[in-house]
Design goal:
Helix content: under 10%
Number of strands: 13
Strand content: over 45%
Distance between the termini: 71 Å
Length: 197
Amino acid sequence: YESFSVNWIYTEPGTGYTVFLNVTEGNYEEYSSTTLRRRGYIWNGSVLSDINYYYDALYTGGWTERKEEGNSGGIYNHMCGLYYCDMDENSFSSDEVFYLTQNLFNADDKYEYLVCSYESVVSSSSENDRDGDGTIDQQIIYYVPRATKLSCLSEDGHTLWQVDINGSESCTIYRINGKYYIRAEGVFYLIDKESTG
């Protein structure tokens, strides 16, 4: 027999057989969304046999909340990759990604980098009637991580600037007529070294 932890022992009515269950009285294992099970062994005085009791699951009690946290739960930060396009040199695209710059966003000797801040946002939801009684008894809400802010940080942790975004995970630097712009979420921002330091 497989490993079994006895939590409740009782005598089978009308037989005198001893039943050993791995759940306490009133508790059950979930066998399926509509069926509960109490699994154990029955002893008739000479033979020990498996026994399973199955019950229809009825979800009529109060609502409870259960959270299943994955790696995407909560709020976290992630370094943002930068692409570079030099329109003055007719270089319209680049597959190279860089993460650090020393004098793009200001003129000091510190390094700067971009960080995307992620939050868990609702992606979809579903409602279910698990016991088929015509009443919704389960609601599932699914969350996904989404970038909501883009920040430029100095190596000492100082924030030079911050903008709101909605899911973008990369940005592109453009040089146009000698000026530098950063494109995030379809919006172009002029990079002014004098005002971002």
